[in-house]
Structures are given as structure tokens and as C-alpha cells.
Prior knowledge:
Blueprint: H1 2-22, H2 35-48, E1 56-63, E2 69-73, E3 78-79, H3 85-96, E4 104-109, E5 112-114, E6 117-119, E7 122-126, H4 134-146, E8 151-153, E9 156-159, E10 200-206, E11 216-220, E12 227-230, E13 233-235, E14 242-247, E15 253-261, E16 267-272, H5 276-290, E17 294-295, E18 299-301, E19 309-315, H6 319-328, H7 332-347, H8 352-365, E20 387-388, H9 389-398, H10 405-411, H11 420-423, E21 439-446, E22 449-457, E23 463-471, H12 476-491
Parallel strand pairs: 6-8, 7-9, 8-17, 9-18, 12-15, 13-15
Antiparallel strand pairs: 1-2, 1-23, 3-20, 4-7, 4-19, 5-6, 10-11, 10-16, 14-15, 21-22, 22-23
Helix pairs in contact: 1-10, 2-12, 3-6, 3-7, 3-8, 4-5, 6-10, 7-8
Amino acid sequence: MLRISIYTMNFLFITTISFIFFNKPVEANEIAAKDVTWAEELAKIIKKDPALQGATVGVSIRNASNGQIIYQHQGNLRLRPASNMKLLTAAAALKVLGENYTFSTEVVTDGKVKGKRLRGNLYLRGKGDPTLLVKDFDVLAIRLKSAGIEKIQGDLLGDDTWYDDVRYAIDVPWSDETTYYGAQISALSASPTADYDAGTINVNVQANKVIGKRPLVKLTPNTNYVTIVNAATTTDQKEKTNITIKRTHGSNTIHITGTIPVHSKEISEGTAVWNPSTYALKLFQQSLIKQGIELTGSLKMAAVPKNGNIILKRNSIPLKELLVPFMKLSNNTHGEILVKEMGKTTSSEGSWDAGLAVLNSVLAQWGLNTKSILIRDGSGISHVTGIPANEISQLLYAVQEEKWFPVYLNSLPVAGIPEKLIGGSLRYRMNTPDLLGKVRAKTGTLSTVSSLSGYVTTRSGKTLIFSILINNLLDEKQGKRIEDQLVSIIANQ
């Protein structure tokens, strides 16, 4: 209940601010004589900034009131959007699934309860929920115990067949597969914290009190599903922190190497697990044992049989609340799950192919030229996905007419607002008076790529839509600096 109330307060706060900043009409001819001045400023940066030499830039700026393009630079050029892809996925999910859509997790049995014993198998069936935490498994176990079940005479099985068995989008690079943002996609999964990085575990490394000793390692959640090989060393305070946390591909062995100075701050890093379905099942088993429920069988993966009966069900927070960590914290697993879920609900096929077909169909309804777009995933982790800036700005214009637009707007990071679930990935950017709280936009970062697209309230009170896509950078941080400069010019009109 506490988590939901936090999201609700966040929604009300942003909705109120959004009304102030984003509900002022903009007339088609309000931007006229001064166009050339600020357009020249934009063009000068794009042409002259040293960080953009050899890079490719696409910029599109629209009037939020009528959709008219008032400035563009290579706006029709297909570029990698990075996490700006999430703008398309979130909008399509709201359109197809609805803002109140929830994911469910079911506890099913093919047996019968006799006294305090369940004679038969117990199944944990996942249906895409990325928000399952240890406490949720605990609640399911408590409910089983409250129903009088103290012993399960059968196996504990996990069912992840709601989606297909393809775990990675087609273009995920090998180097990303062990990272928290490159986790495997499964219909049955678990998250370490309320950031909901499904399919991951947090590794926390704390310096030992004794120099030369191994640092202390804690896992969130606490589980023996992974094996820790700790080869790191606690060093003198004068040394620098140099810790590497890396899971061996194809296994759940996590190696910790490097140095951490005594008395230094704890290091916490998310790591994707291998096989998130079994990971979730293992956590459920731990919760059952914690409640004193005896298991006589083993852990397995199998589909629920036709004669299975649902005995418990758990629903996630609604999509309108899930969009907050998805968009503000740029959660890749959410993007891929939403694509598969759109496919499952529309064509009964929980796959990328089915979901992306739905996504493209919906985008066409908003006037996007889908023939100019190449989409390979739902998160933007792909280095092949290509979208023109003009198509992203068209999306941002069209969705303003949807009844769920306040939910969509609420999910975007807010410039300079330090609260994590408000400012999101923009909480440390554009905090100057001219931009603070006046920019709501999605960030994006890949190797050599930086992007920023959203809405900005200008000094004169107008609302403009912008999309900035920068590819082939040598330093993505320079891309962020340039984006902020461009948005500042746009805002000071």
C-alpha cells in the first residue's frame, strides 16, 4: 500500500504542475519574426560544436498546439533513438492495454488438500509481472499457510509459458547480457527492489574493517541462487575504489575483483541472473520454507496442466503506476515485457514479432510514417532500431489527444527535480531557472548515442515539442551537454 500511495502522490503532483505548464494554447502563427534568430543559434551549435564533428544529428521541433514543424535538421533521417524508443512503447501500451491494466501471478495446484497436506504439485504461473518482490512471495506463502497447508507432497514448479522462450531481443549485444539493463525477458521473474529491474539481483560490496581482507558482500534479495566468488581486497584509504562485479555468461557465478578502500561507501550494482524463471521459483521456495511449509518434491519448470486449479492470485500495480519507473528510470525489461504483452493480448502470442506488429499498427494510427521506421525491440537497447526525429515529434503531438495523456506526461522525467521518481533521469540536468521543472522529456543513451525528446514550456509560456537524436558520438556525455544547450535555446523564446 505504501508503494502505491507514493506513486499516487507523484501522479497528483506532476498532474498539477503539468496543468500549469502544458495547458496553454499555442497559436500557429505565434512564432514568426524571431524564428531565424533562435534557429540560427541551434544551427550554429549543430554545425560548430567540436563534439559533433563526425557525428550525425537529427532535430525536430513542433508547435504543440497544431503539430506544425517549426524547425528541423535532418528530421527525416533514420537514427538510433536509444531509450527514446520507450516513448513509442509506452504510448502503444496505454493504447492497447489501457492505463489500468495489471499483470497477474497465479499459484495453481493439480492436487487436493487433505487436512494440512497438499497432495499434488504446486505451480507458480507467471504472466509477465515485472514487479514481484520477495515480500510478494512471502505474502503468497503466508496465505497458503493461513489456508491450513503445512506440507506439499509433490513438486514445486514454475510456469513461464505465457510468453515464448526467446529471452533476448534480437540485437542485444553479448556485453549487455550480464548487466541489469540487459536482463533476460521471462513471463515469470522477480525484482530486487521497487525500481523493478526484473530478472536481476543487487550485489552490495562493503569494505572490510581490516586492510588486506576481503570486502563484505551482501545480496538483495538474500538468496543462494547465485554463487559469489570474492577475490577483491580492502585497501588503504588513500587508494581508489576499483571494484568489478561480473557474472560469467551462461551461469550464475558472479566474480568480484579489484580494490575498495577501508571506510569507503558501500558499492551496489545490479546484475542480471541466468534464467530468471528459476530465480523467481527459488525465491518462492524460500518464502514457503520461511513459513514452515514443508516441500517433499523438487523444483522444476513445467506448464500448468489443464486440470490445474488456481488457489491464489496476485495482481501487479496498474500500468499507469508502472510507467513511472519504466520511463523515469528507463527500465529496459519493462519495455520488452510490454511489447510481448501487447502481442499476447492481441494475438495470443507473447513474442517480439507479434508485439512489434501491434506496435507498428498503433503508430500508424497516430500518423507516423511506419515505412520510414525500423523497430527491433521495445526498450531501445538495439543498435539497429532506427527512427527519424520528425516521427518521434509526431507521436508526441498526436498522443496529446488521448484520454490517458496525463498518465503519459506524468511518466516523463522532469528537468532538475531531485526526487528520483519525479526527476528520474533528468533530476541532475537542466536545473537552471529557465529550465527547472519546465522540461518533461525521455532521455536515451547507448554507446555513441544520446537522445532527448519531449515537451518544453518556453519563456513566453508556449509549449513546444522537440526530439533530438545524436548518433556516432565519441563521448555520450558531450551529447547530454549539447542537448541541454539546444533545449535552453528553445525554452528561451
